[in-house]
Automatic annotation (TrEMBL):
Name of the featured protein: Cytochrome c-type biogenesis protein
Biological role: Possible subunit of a heme lyase.
Source organism (scientific name): Klebsiella pneumoniae
Listed GO CC annotations: plasma membrane
Domain CcmH/CycL/Ccl2/NrfF N-terminal residue range list: 4-101
């Protein structure tokens, strides 16, 4: 596989199809994925870097198309939320256990 083909495959594998949601644009048969692959090819022909191409797609379709969304307050909450609930639950259990010992 030529370096250009490998770079194309790498970029299209890292972009999510807006219609299929769980497929990359490399694996999707949706029309929008075909359009996105064509745009990636055009941008590569213009000499754009991988980062510039991904930035273009994110600007056009939103962070949803990236399998590596940026770290924001919302995404931090999604990652830390379950752990915080577990800690809160453990705190409640410990507090109730101590209260029973006192009574």
């Amino acid at each position: 596989m030529r370096p250009e083909e490998q770079a194309f495959r790498e970029i299209t594998s890292q972009l999510r199809c807006p219609k299929c949601q769980n497929n990359s644009i490399a694996d999707s048969n949706a029309m929008i994925a075909a359009d996105m692959r064509q745009k990636v090819y055009e941008l590569m022909q213009q000499g754009k870097t991988k980062g510039q191409i991904v930035d273009y797609m994110v600007a056009r379709y939103g962070h949803f198309v990236s399998y590596e969304p940026p770290l924001t307050a919302g995404t931090v909450l999604l990652w830390l939320g379950p752990g915080l609930f577990v800690l809160a639950g453990a705190g409640v259990i410990i507090a109730r256990a101590r209260r029973r010992d006192i009574l």
